[in-house]
Amino acid sequence: MVFQIITLFPEMVGPVLSTSMMWKASEKGLAEFRVLNLRDFGLGPRHQVDDTPYGGGDGMLLMCEPIFAAVEYAKAQATNSKVILTTPKGSRWQQGMAAEFAERGQSGENYIILCGHYEGFDERILTLADHQVSIGDYVLTGGELPALVFVDSIVRLIPGVLGGEQSAQIESFSDGKTLEFPQYTRPAEFRGMKVPDVLLSGNHGEIAKWRKEH
Ligand code: ADE
Predict the structure, then answer these.
(1) Region 137-148: what's the mean pLDDT?
(2) Cβ-Cβ contacts under 8 Å for 89 (sequence gap 6 or more)
(3) For residue 168, what pLDDT is reported?
(4) Which domains are seen in the chain, by residue range?
(5) Whose C-alpha lies nearest to ligand 1, atom 5?
(6) Any ligand 1 atom below 6 A from CB of 87
């Protein structure tokens, strides 16, 4: 499953992709990450990527040419790539969607993630997107953090990435509604706070019942 992230801030996403589960996924060959610097596709000697809006107004908009060029380049690198645009106007990202993408990714789909930009982009860029994704009803400075949320939530669902195969199944939101049961580790008592007796009982039936109830 190849994830290509197109961004003006590669230094923001690179370190996260080489840490923890994402690093593990790429070490195991289960996912591959490539970061494309949008600036490399910019126009002219100054590698221009944005311009002022027609009709006037504040700010600069990402231009079509560099983005189309970057997406076309990325598509040539990995077949069957779907383009994801991160935008607060997109569909709200949810666990069930991450699971669907993880499944489609295992059947050969790859992803190109186009990070939006706080001042906006030329509307024609929307024609490139197969999916528009928002991670919540708030506006971030750019699409880099949402892109990482998107990638992380999918990659950890690829079989073999998480330690125990069950981990992704029993945790919060896996069935779309319930939250994970409370968990404890040593010591059995800490500053007067005790681990529930049932968890120390060794009675697996009772433990399973308690976990279900919680
Ligand atoms: N870009 C800025 N804010 C965003 C959000 N909430 N979700 C996705 N992309 C964004």
Answers:
(1) 96
(2) 132, 134
(3) 65
(4) 2-155 (3.40.1280.10), 181-214 (1.10.1270.20)
(5) 88
(6) yes
Average of per-residue pLDDT across 71-99: 97
* CA 138 to centroid of chain Cα atoms: 16
Which residues 6+ apart lie within 8 Å of 104 measured at CB?
none
- What spacing in Å lies between the alpha carbon of 33 and ligand 1's midpoint? 21
Compute CA 26 distance to the chain's CA centroid, rounded to the nearest angstrom. 15
Inform me whether the pLDDT recorded for 27 exceeds 60: yes
| CA-nearest residue, atom 9 of ligand 1 | 87
Taking the centre of ligand 1 as the mean of its atom positions, its distance from the CA of residue 204, in whole angstroms, is 44
Nearest 5°: phi and psi at 45?
Answer: -65, -20
Q: Quick check: CB of 140 below 6 Å from ligand 1?
A: yes
List, as one string, the DSSP characters of 123-173: GGGGGG-SEEEESSSS--SBSHHHHHHHHHHHHTTSTTSSSSTTHHHHSTT
| Tokens encoding 182 | 């409370």
Name the nearest CA neighbour of 26 among 14, 15, 17, 36: 17
Output the CA angle 162-148-77, nearest 5 degrees: 95
CB distance 134 to 116 below 8 Å: no
Please tell me the pTM assigned to this model.
0.91
